[in-house]
Design goal:
By secondary structure, the protein is an alpha+beta fold. It is built from ten helices and 17 strands. It has helices at residues 12-15, 32-43, 173-181, 206-212, 219-222, 232-235, 269-274, 349-371, 373-381, 396-417; strands at 48-52, 61-67, 72-78, 84-88, 109-111, 115-116, 123-124, 130-132, 151-157, 160-164, 194-202, 242-246, 249-255, 301-308, 312-317, 321-331, 334-343. The strands form three sheets. A seven-stranded antiparallel sheet has the order 1-10-9-4-3-2-5, with no helix packed on it. α2 (32-43) crosses α10. The two termini are 40 Å apart. Bound molecules: FE2/S2 (inorganic) cluster and fe (ii) ion.
């Protein structure tokens, strides 16, 4: 992986001159009109990560994904040729939602040979073609070949399944991901098959929560309990050592010595008991040489956090596991947050306990982040402050993210008006 030079200390933002250093506006997080523009300009045009290939292990494995932001639901399925496909979750007869379980608005998953509509029992093959129409001869000139499920563009990169709701995507998935993200395909994501999934409905704009995971300025304050009282002075003034930006995508690296090397008074008892904690299990798996990590070449590499525009983050940890976050808007001031943690398979009960400890710690710290968000949204909606929220150098990715969103919305508005 190419290494990028570290600019002079304290100058990350100035290194990317197009970002400027002025305060930013948070109108993009409180305006219903701006949210409508994002729905069209971003979520109906960008590649969106909806899951992993491990979620589609066999022929006929499928899951549904509710995409409220695009006012649709999709089915993602592995067909008989092994290809991963996506379709709008809509029956071609009279528009019934095709795949759901007990509640139409809830996501579901499973394995099947065909999809059968609950209304009049039309059936669709795994490739979306219409296979069976009840009392077909009562219809008028109905050619089943004309009534397959409506396809959604779907591509797989490094085992991550992406969809694109545009009629014709502007770029292939690989071109969209670009030179900063694509080298990650050398990481052994496919070996990390023990998966823990969480989701939460959060009362804030999707960007407000994303901002909380792209700067570490807040860590010593909001997450002071991350460190034991003895270790707390150590995390004071914590700073990330490397940032990188490519197109609409971003990344940040943090460092941290392996937790197992820390003195005992810097560990909580549960960490010592399970040999695990917030940064993952201490017994790192052997993942092989030349992993595509640490592009800044920092000392004591701890973690890379990649943010794939618009709403996916992948965090790869030195302790040999990774997690993803996705933020699905449900309105201008609400969203659904999904966290997934992936580990190499546990071989022993101790491995499993170590995973569980990392997961519980993750939930605790994510809750600390989430706990501030309703208050932030409320503060922003007061519109008391105007347009000048000052960002420091460690908040460079916050600055870049809001600019990337604004640029895309402005581009779209320009194409629409032809100006
Ligand atoms: S709406 Fe699906 S079969 Fe009638
Ligand atoms: Fe945090």
């Amino acid at each position: 992986m190419p290494h990028f030079p570290k600019p002079a200390p304290g100058s990350w933002t100035e290194h990317y001159a197009e970002l400027g250093t002025a305060g930013i506006s948070y109108d993009d997080c409180v305006s219903p009109e701006f949210y409508s523009a994002e729905q069209e300009a971003i979520f109906r045009r960008a590649w969106l990560n909806v899951g992993r290939v491990e979620d589609l292990a066999r022929t006929g494995s499928y899951f549904t994904k509710e995409l409220e932001v695009a006012r649709t639901s999709i089915i993602v399925v592995r067909d008989r040729e092994g290809r991963v496909r996506a379709f709008h979750n809509v029956c071609r007869h009279r528009g019934n939602k095709l795949v759901w379980n007990d509640f139409p608005r809830e996501e579901t998953s499973g394995t099947c040979r065909q999809f059968t509509c609950k209304y009049h029992a039309w059936r669709y093959d795994l490739d979306g073609s219409l296979a069976f129409v009840q009392q077909e001869d009562e219809f008028f000139d109905l050619d089943k070949a004309d009534y397959g499920l409506m396809p959604v563009h779907c591509e797989v990169w490094a085992g991550f399944v992406f969809v694109n709701l545009a009629e014709e995507p502007e770029q292939s998935l690989r071109d969209y991901l670009g030179p900063m993200i694509t080298p990650l395909e050398g990481y052994p994501f496919e070996r990390m098959t023990d998966q823990y999934v969480f989701s939460a409905n959060v009362d804030c704009n999707w960007k407000v929560f994303l901002d909380a995971f792209q700067e570490y300025y807040h860590v010593p304050v909001l997450h002071s309990q991350e460190a034991t009282p003895a270790a707390r002075p150590k995390i004071k003034g914590f700073e990330a050592p490397h940032y990188q930006i490519d197109g609409p995508h971003r990344m940040v690296t943090t460092n941290g010595a392996p937790r197992r090397t820390w003195p005992a008074e810097f560990q909580y008892p549960i960490e010592i008991a399970t040999r695990s904690g917030l940064f993952g299990p201490w017994n790192e798996p052997e993942l092989g040489p030349d992993l595509p990590v640490n592009p800044g070449g920092v000392d004591k590499w701890g973690m890379d956090n990649y943010q794939i525009f618009p709403n996916t983050e992948i965090l790869m940890w030195a302790s040999g596991w990774y997690l993803t976050y996705t933020y699905w808007p449900t309105s201008h001031n609400t969203h659904r947050f999904e966290g997934r943690l992936y580990f190499p398979p546990a071989r022993t009960a101790s491995d499993r306990a170590a995973q569980e400890c990392a997961v519980v710690m993750f939930k605790e710290f994510a809750l600390q982040d989430a706990g501030t968000l309703t208050g932030t949204q409320q503060g922003l909606e007061a519109r008391a402050v105007g347009h000048n929220f000052p960002l420091n150098d460690q908040e460079i990715l916050v600055r870049h993210f809001h600019k990337a969103v604004a640029d895309r919305v402005a581009d779209y508005e320009r194409t629409k008006t032809g100006v």
